[in-house]
Amino acid sequence: MSERELLLVPGPTMVEAEVLEALAQEPLSHVDPRFVAIYVEALSQTRRLFQLTGGAVFLLAGSGTMAMEMALVNTVAPEERLLVVSHGYFGDRFARIAAAFGIQADLLSATWGQRVPAEEVAAALQSQHYRAVAVTHVDTSTGVEADLSSLVPLVKAHGALFLLDGVCATGAIEEEMGKTYGDLSYTIDLVFSGSQKALGLPPGLFLLAMGERALAARRAMPSIPAYYADALNWLPVMEDPSRYFATPPVNMVTAYRVAMRRLFAEGLEVRYLRHRVQGQAVRAALRSIGFTPLAEEDVAAPTVSCLRYPAGLDDAAFRGGLARRGVIVAGGLAETKGLAFRLGHLGNVTAVELRRALAHISATMVELGAHLDLPVAMEIFDEVMTGGLEVGR
Ligand SMILES: Cc1ncc(COP(=O)(O)O)c(C=O)c1O
């Protein structure tokens, strides 16, 4: 039997057979009671994932960018101010979306591979009032994970809404809206994500959770510059999915329910630990054969790594050679283009599959002229995996 192709870009990720089967069903009517029951369960799974009571959850057709728009237009009015804490390409995107809607955005950008220092965020928050602060949990361009434990209290003490982009984190890193960060009222106000990353579905569905304060912000605006993305248009459907506003993607919602059942069967805590250890193990292994992670280990994400090439390794030759061996990875974005590749280690990918990818990476490098001890990366991977999982137990 030929080996399964390893799709190791930071989304879309590999999709399990039972999720694919749900996608391949004849569609049900969106108001069929059988589908309504599926939608109800899918929405309650979303609440469970984010530990949200009160507020509202939305599960809709659209990619992560649609969710970014929905998050901004429902919480910040045109002319109001937004602060963006950016750790790369996707953080910067918040500022572009804000500009498209006439929202006044100030962008705090980190040096690629680093975090925006908390003092800079604090200073910006002191300089004027912001309605909301947008943070990307993991920026997929740099592999940097934002530090929620320092950012949430800063933002909440300022009185702004905390908006979190979980596209490259949800289901792999804790994002609990019920969790308090210091003060009882210091919680995440809104989080959204896409289907195609750590949740293990194809692209096309987004989830968005609004806490009470985020919902109140929408209600305080008489109208917003959106129709499809207006939370108030969807709210009646999310409360009672037998109602209609626009046709939901029935097969994706059905497949989402299957993927989420799998996720809860694994267990959130186990899943979070698995991702953290996988990330550490993969980076340690790749470091041992000459790659340099763009993000230092203390800020590096459990879901994706951006890895600078060792001298002499050509981007196109490396990724092309790897693809011929059935391992698909992504190129660097913007300032890392041609200089680094990005490896997704999120979703349903197993340690066995990551190990296989490391073997192919080593072999491709040797093919391209590198002198390597072939098993070294796999040995280091095994060591860090075993150690990390034991510590976590
Ligand atoms: C962190 C993050 N935010 C937002 C997006 C945009 O999502 P989409 O490409 O699904 O529109 C991406 C896409 O990769 C992402 O990684």
Which descriptors would you attach to this protein?
42% helix, Aspartate Aminotransferase, domain 1, single chain, Aspartate Aminotransferase, domain 2, alpha/beta, globular
How would you sum up this structure in a few lines?
42% of the residues lie in helices and 16% in strands. It is α/β, with parallel strands linked by helices and 393 residues long. The protein folds into 2 domains: 6-11 and 267-392, Alpha-Beta Complex (Aspartate Aminotransferase, domain 1), CATH 3.90.1150; 17-265, Aspartate Aminotransferase, domain 2 (3-Layer(aba) Sandwich), CATH 3.40.640.
Descriptive account of the structure:
This protein has 393 residues and is of the alpha/beta class. It folds into two domains: 6-11 and 267-392, Aspartate Aminotransferase, domain 1 (Alpha-Beta Complex); 17-265, Type I PLP-dependent aspartate aminotransferase-like (Major domain) (Aspartate Aminotransferase, domain 2), CATH 3.40.640. Helix content is 42%, strand content 16%. It is built from 13 helices and 15 strands. The protein has helices spanning 17-23, 33-50, 64-73, 89-100, 118-127, 148-158, 212-219, 231-239, 250-266, 268-288, 315-324, 351-367, 376-392; strands spanning 6-7, 56-61, 81-86, 104-109, 132-136, 138-139, 144-145, 161-165, 190-194, 205-210, 292-293, 304-308, 327-328, 330-331, 340-344. The strands form four sheets. It has a seven-stranded mixed sheet with strand order 2-10-9-8-5-3-4, with helices on both faces. Strands 11-12-15-14 form a four-stranded antiparallel sheet, with helices on one face. A hairpin with a 4-residue loop joins strand 6 and strand 7 (144-145). It starts with 5 loop residues before the first strand and ends with a helix. The site of pyridoxal-5'-phosphate has 14 residues, from helix 3. Residues 11, 63-65, 68, 90, 136, 139-140, 165, 167-168, 194, 203 line the site of pyridoxal-5'-phosphate.
